[in-house]
Amino acid sequence: MPQKAGMVFLALLFLLLTASTPLALAQDDGHFDASLGFAGVFPKQSTGNGTILNPTNSAAVVASFRYRFNPTHSVEFNYASTRDSQVYTTGANQFRIMSKLSEYSFAYVLNIFQRGKFEPFLFGGGGALVFHPGNTYINTYALPVFVSKQTELAFLYGAGVDYRVVPHVAVRFQYRGLVYKAPDFDGANFLTSAKGNLAEPSIGVVFRF
User: Residue 205 pLDDT more than 90?
Assistant: First the structure.
């Protein structure tokens, strides 16, 4: 459902952009902005090689630093962190790997126009997702499982809008999506060879300087 909602959001934003007549670009607040926000993290199930991976939903902290070359073109560095469980079902057994997930990514950001206090944007880029394993469980029992830290490359895409509250301060609403190879922690029977997908609707505060 979150992925479908994100696609609807992107489609509506695309229609808005293509239907709008050219408008004045955002006033130059400076070349930098920094944001801090919170996101819901909704992973998609991955299946392959007789294994089903169902990561749990979670909440994440998302921090971004954006450099604006001009009112239209920007680049952005993102860091996000969440804690969840990677739940593998293989045969009659279920393995739960408690994990910390860290995102390090860069993106190109296209700010199309400013309409009143609203400034919509699209972005795309890539980076890395680092999975740090913690406690492990087999069929709800706390038992040791051989696992190791894993890093996967990820493709980042999304769209959002900044709503200017006062000069140099805005509220940011955005949908972030991450596509990556599902982790296996180098564990036996955990390899699905499938793609994972994180849907992350988020809200945050932006400071421009």
Answer: yes
43 - beta bridge partners? 198
pLDDT tens figures, 19-29: 443 443 345 56
Q: Is 185:192 a contact under the CB 8 Å cutoff?
A: no
Residues 60-98 have pLDDT tens digits of 999 999 999 999 999 999 999 999 999 999 999 999 999
Classify each residue of 134-157 as buried b or exposed e, where b means 16 or more C-beta atoms within 10 Å of its C-beta.
eebbeeeeeeebebeebeeebebb
Q: Give the whole-angstrom CA distance, residue 30 versus residue 55.
A: 40
Using the CB atoms, write b or e for 99-115: b if 16+ within 10 Å. bebbbebebebebbbbe
Domains of the chain by range and CATH? Answer: 2-20+31-208 (2.40.160.20)
What pTM did the predictor assign?
A: 0.85
Q: CB within 8 A of 89, min separation 6: which ones?
A: 51, 52, 54, 95
Chain length of the chain: 209
* CA–CA dist 59, 100 (Å, integer): 11
